[in-house]
Specification:
Blueprint: E1 12-15, H1 21-30, H2 37-43, H3 48-56, E2 59-66, E3 69-77, E4 82-88, H4 97-111, E5 116-121, H5 128-135, E6 139-143, E7 149-154, E8 158-160, E9 166-168
Antiparallel strand pairs: 1-2, 2-3, 3-4, 5-7, 6-7, 8-9
The structure holds coenzyme A.
Length: 171
């Protein structure tokens, strides 16, 4: 007799809380492009305690769970409009998880009053994230001397003036 096919459980999304540090650091480190991710985060002052503190005040983030584990997350900073970090495990890429997480952070930052949000990413055009952001409406903004690529995205109802500054459209 034929058995009914087991359907994979769809991924679920929820806000990051103070108890999620192990899981989100694990995802970030596994998606880092070198094997010194843990040491580099610590050197940047990004620790479980510091991120827990950010979440009490300036930052919010969301994570995705699938098959009983955290497989991606993203966080933003409401004090400067920055989309701070996004990461999805390689084996879960290409399923719309990054897009969903990015939209949650963008929508929150726009709801906090920002007409434009921004991020930094890799200068290398071939990195998946650069094409991902462009595909989702982010544009190149500037390159810093230390090598970071800055990208930005205007609130959908916002248009730019001739100098590239966002101007709220008349309501
Ligand atoms: C970048 C990253 C978050 C993308 O996550 P993802 O879950 O694979 O992305 P999604 O599947 O949601 O893709 C969303 C859309 O972007 C498109 N896309 C993704 N990468 C793309 C690329 N390089 N070029 C063009 N389009 C791309 C997808 O086809 C999809 O299009 P659709 O909505 O029209 O179907 C993920 O690859 C990642 O974590 N990379 C490693 C960590 C990293 O680089 N983080 C960013 C540091 S700045």
């Amino acid at each position: 007799m034929r058995q009914p096919q087991e359907q994979p459980t769809p991924p679920t999304y929820r806000e990051i809380g103070p108890g999620d540090m192990d899981a989100i650091f694990d995802v970030r480190i596994r998606t880092w492009d070198n094997d010194r991710g843990a040491e580099e985060l610590t050197a940047l002052g990004i620790t479980h305690d510091s991120v827990r503190d950010l979440l009490k005040d300036s930052h919010r983030g969301w994570l995705c769970e699938a098959e009983g584990q955290v497989v991606g997350f993203a966080m933003g900073n409401k004090t400067n409009g920055e989309m701070w970090v996004i990461a999805v495990l390689a084996e879960y890429e290409g399923r719309g998880i990054g897009k969903h997480l990015l939209t949650l952070v963008e929508d929150w930052l726009f709801s906090e009053g920002w007409d434009e949000v921004w991020l930094t990413t890799d200068p290398d055009e071939t990195i998946r994230a650069v094409g991902f952001y462009r595909h989702l409406g982010w544009e190149d903004w500037k390159m810093e001397s230390d090598g970071d690529r800055f990208m930005r995205k205007a609130r959908p109802s916002v248009q730019r003036n001739s100098t590239g500054q966002p101007t709220s459209s008349p309501t």
